[in-house]
């Protein structure tokens, strides 16, 4: 609804309100920007990459190829944080879905 339609509605109960059927130019359409699916897939790929990098550093440390245990621990903690963030995003998405399913129409 436009501001004019809201103002007309506020003036009297019998005033008809016209609803915009087309989104205005400032409103993003469904084709603008990356799709949510793509953004989520990229996030999962980043988490997977962090996990694989941490595993590679652990294997290199165990094989004796590197002696810096600090870098290994940092990589493991970063991978854990990435995974925790992804888990929380998943939980929020499920909570939102369950809330939608509880709504009565």
Strand content: under 5%
Count of beta strands: 0
Give the SSE string: HHH
**Radius of gyration, CA atoms, in whole angstroms:** 25 Å
Tally of separate helices? 3
- Spans of at least 5 consecutive residues whose pLDDT stays below 50 are none
Which class of secondary structure composition applies to the elements?
mainly alpha
Give the integer mean of the pLDDT values: 83
Biggest beta sheet summary: none
Q: What would you call the shape?
A: elongated
Q: What's the N-to-C terminus distance? A: 22 Å
The helix fraction, in percent, is: 55-70%
Keywords: Bacterial flagellum, Cell projection, Cilium, Flagellum
GO cellular component, one term: bacterial-type flagellum basal body
InterPro entries: FliE
GO molecular function, one term: cytoskeletal motor activity
TL;DR of this structure?
This protein is an all-alpha fold and 105 residues long. It has helices at residues 3-11, 36-62, 69-102.
Structural summary, described in words:
- This protein is mostly helical and 105 residues long.
- It has a domain of 72 residues.
- It has 3 helices and no strands.
- Helix 2 packs antiparallel against helix 3.
- The longest helix has 34 residues.
Key terms:
single chain, 105 residues, mainly alpha, 3 helices
List the helices and strands and how they pair.
Layout: H1 3-11, H2 36-62, H3 69-102
Helix pairs in contact: 2-3
């Amino acid at each position: 609804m436009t501001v004019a339609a809201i103002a007309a509605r506020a003036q009297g109960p019998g005033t008809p309100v016209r609803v915009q059927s087309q989104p205005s130019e400032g409103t993003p359409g469904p084709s603008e920007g990356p799709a949510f699916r793509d953004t989520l897939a990229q996030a999962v790929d980043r988490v997977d990459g962090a996990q694989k990098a941490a595993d590679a550093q652990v294997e290199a440390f165990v094989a004796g190829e590197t002696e810096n245990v600090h870098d290994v621990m940092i990589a493991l903690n970063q991978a854990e944080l990435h995974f925790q963030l992804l888990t929380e995003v998943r939980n929020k998405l499920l909570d939102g879905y369950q809330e939608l399913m509880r709504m009565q129409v």
